[in-house]
Amino acid sequence: xxxxxxxxxxxxxxxxxxxxxxxxxxxxxxxxxxNPMVSSVxxxxxxxxxLGGANHVTFNPSISFFLxxxxxxxxxxxxxxxxxxxxxxxxxxxxxxxxxxxWCEDKNGISWQxxxxxxxxxxxxxxxxxxxxxxxxxxxxxxYYTRLIPHSQINLLDRYVEGSGDKEGNVQHAQFLLNDQHxxxxxxxxxxxxxxxxxxxxxxTCQNQDEIDFYWDSFIRDGxxxxxxxxxKDPFGVSWQIIxxxxxxxxxxxxxxxxxxxxxxxxxxxxxxxxxxxxx
Length: 280
Description:
Blueprint: E1 4-10, H1 15-23, E2 29-34, E3 38-43, E4 46-51, E5 63-69, H2 72-83, E6 87-95, E7 98-105, E8 111-116, E9 124-130, H3 138-148, E10 153-159, E11 171-178, E12 181-187, E13 200-206, H4 209-221, E14 225-226, E15 231-233, E16 239-244, H5 247-250, H6 257-264, H7 271-279
Parallel strand pairs: 1-4, 5-8, 9-12, 13-16
Antiparallel strand pairs: 1-13, 2-3, 3-4, 5-9, 6-7, 7-8, 10-11, 11-12, 14-15, 15-16
Helix pairs in contact: 6-7
């Protein structure tokens, strides 16, 4: 089993408008495919899906993105671009964990943590912040993900000690791999007004129906909540999409009302049902 993992961002504006904004900021940016509904891009070596038309969810800091730099000059330029017309959450400054670090929201509400770091190998890394009812569950979630998804491992797990800023034993900073891709996690016992939602989801692209069944059924068995069209929340409230690798090809038929009726009625994706509808 070798399913890929992409990150899906669900914007209020169109996917094209979002794509144009980030393409103007990031030099390492490749448009892989685009249609009126979706833009598939590769940003700083990581695959993203941009969806447009979100009208019931907004971005929040529960999932942010670390941008890793080797030079202050490059970091400061990106900071200026991303924080413009946005909001600063932590001022760009020197901190115990980095010689230069800052946390901001861009004008779309996406959170970015920019830092100088000399050992993390990837340029962009999703970070999960476990708050509210998920506070205290970060380590459990990391162990769950790394057991469920092949080619995964925990690389670092640092906990708060007494007097260090949060509840003793909470995860202060964790680094782990899912399908050989880097992720970061931490948790907070403070009264944050945000939690995971559908604005940011992780997309597992499966090679066949057996893989779809495995991930979907595992999330359900372990306490996840199913939704429509391959969307599902895991036991910790993080949103995932479990889709076949030919999903892009299938969705070229979004103007076919019969196909869309079948698709929109699905929870777990049934590849044969979609293909049979097209062929029948």
